[in-house]
Amino acid sequence: MDNKKKYLLLFVTVIAMVAVTLGYFLYNKPAMDVENTMGQKVEATALYEKFTEDSTVAKKKYSNQILEVSGMVTLVSKNLQLQPVVMLKTNTEGAAVNCTLEGPAGDIKAGHTVGIRGICNGMGEGDAELGIMGDVYLVRCYLIK
């Protein structure tokens, strides 16, 4: 082999090793510790208003961030995976901040004021033709004591 082919083979080998190493570390990266990490504090009504006023700015500020959202509970239910889902009141009729809990909801009922820590996934689209407003979604949520 001439020198040009040796250097090309060495270059490709180094790039492959870097890619495999990077992939390994990203795959094994630990998940965010939502339960024990402090997040940005925001009221449910204010969070929803920020997404409806300018969703681009709100996505940049809140999406994939840990938030501590407080507000009044409008509904407590379970999703298809039987996880508790707490809906927090907003100033928009038919819209809510939708929080999927990792643990039990305890004795939370509609009308209670609660604090919930979770990861913001942004705002759902809803359906304008049917008059259904989109919700703001938080996942991997925990009740703040």
Describe the 3D structure.
This protein is α/β, with parallel strands linked by helices and about 140 residues long. The protein has 2 domains: about 1-30; about 40-145, Nucleic acid-binding proteins (OB fold (Dihydrolipoamide Acetyltransferase, E2P), Beta Barrel), CATH 2.40.50. About 30% of the residues lie in helices and about 35% in strands. It has 3 helices and 6 strands, in the order αβααβββββ. It has helices at about 5-25, 45-55, 55-60; strands at about 40-45, 65-80, 85-90, 95-100, 115-125, 135-145. It has a 5-stranded mixed beta barrel. Helix 2 (about 45-55) crosses helix 3 (about 55-60). It starts with a helix and ends with a strand. The model has no long low-confidence stretch (mean pLDDT about 95).
Can you describe this structure in just a few lines?
The chain contains three helices and six strands. It is α/β, with parallel strands linked by helices and 145 residues long. The model has no long low-confidence stretch (mean pLDDT 93).
